[in-house]
Amino acid sequence: MKIAVLGLGTMGAPMATNLIKAGCEVTVYNRTRVREEPLAKLGAARAEDPAQAAAEVDIVLSCVSDTPDVAHVLLDGTVGAIHGLREGGLVIDCSSIAPAATRRFAEQFRAKGIGYVDAPVSGGSEGAVKGTLTIMCGGTEEDYARAEPVLQIIGAKVTRIGPVGCGQIAKVANQIAIAGTYMALAEALTLAYRAGANPERVVKAINGGVAGSWILNNRSDKMLNDDYPLGFRTRLHRKDLGIALDAAHEFQVPLPIASLVATIEDGLIAQGHGDEDMSNLARFIREGAGVPSGPMKA
To answer: Are residues 79 and 182 in the same domain?
Structure first.
């Protein structure tokens, strides 16, 4: 299987790595060219632009930060992948962008006889490395059937939601849900600490009940230690919440929790914390409670 991977950031690079390890013939392209070098050492071919990357493959997989980035790698001028991918090819876009933009992009590829699946992912950098991502897909049943073997290499749970754009809608729902969970966990642990309970023991206690979650298991230690190494960037979650809030306005759905978290993330980004993991929402609660920087010790 010949695949071009466009975008080699925190998520795209490990996706490409797992495809190579699975025996796929992979061609890579990234605007910051140095990021291609580790993949080349693993056997990937390098292309000068997305069109060249797409010219000799069956499938193009893109994973970039935002709508303009997707437009650039897929559609730009004479260098977008649409100018290289042949009729009968397939695009799998794992970026998280607005559903309406996804539909517009898909229409342009369909006009050239090229399939399109939007396949945004959840699971953070850990999931990308381990190949255990949750992947939410939109596309025709035929296009999804072609995309699924590729997605099963990079993800552990792959679900077709519906037509093109539905993957992005599911990702919006995911980002709304985790916003509230991160915020609630930060509140719970900070209150426990300020009230005199051992917060590490609180984590162990509530993990066995209804409050148990992936976020509790994987991010509570970051909040307790006041240390937020990269998992999923705060500024990217804020971008996703912007998409969610736009959709909420369109369909007249109130999102009070998402709106609050977006405002808090705006403050964190303004303070220079946008590239930290979004578990840094705990900074806001800790500071409001007067908890000093550093680990919360009982």
So the answer is: no
Average pLDDT of 28-54? 97
Provide the whole-model pTM. Answer: 0.93
Are residues 95 and 177 both part of a single domain?
no
Helix (H, G, I), strand (E, B) or coil at 19: helix
- According to DSSP, the residues that pair with 24 across neighbouring strands are none
pLDDT digits (tens, 9 = 90+) for 89-126: 999 999 999 999 999 999 999 999 999 999 999 999 99
- Whether the pLDDT of residue 145 is over 80: the answer is yes
User: From residue 173, how far is each of 44, 180, 244 by CA, in Å?
Assistant: 35, 11, 8
Whether 137 and 176 share a structural domain:
no
Q: Of 132, 162, 192, which residue constitutes the final position of a domain?
A: 162
Q: Would you please indicate which residues are annotated as catalytic (active-site) residues?
A: 171
Asked, for residue 298, whether it belongs to a domain, the answer is no
